[in-house]
Amino acid sequence: MTLNDLKATTVARVNQDTIRRLEQAEKESGTGGKIPPTEWMWGQLVDWSLKSGHYVVREHQFSDTRLFRFDFAVPEKKIGIEYEGLMSEKSGHTTLNGYTKDTEKYNLAATEGWQVIRFTIKNYKNVIERLNALLQ
Question: How many domains does the chain have?
């Protein structure tokens, strides 16, 4: 395989896209190099995916009956990964309607055989540890 062949692979494109997204998030955040939690999680999940061989996707629609999406997912293992942005300005998670919609989403996921792991600003850096524990 040549270098150009390697650059054309899906793995290379995923890495490039991830690096570009992380760099953009860092620029836009204005937080002195701190990366927003969802972008940090995505970078870690891509790295984990490459090392483990498990395919990870963003914004995965897991059901044919509703348009609900997981922030991230490992579809082959039916694992959904959610970041609950309780602290963000546009969070609907803390309203009654938003919280109710979340419960409907998680209940549907359970009915369809998905395991959902959820994170907040306090524990999102445990995503890989938790994912590995689920897969053991």
Answer: 1
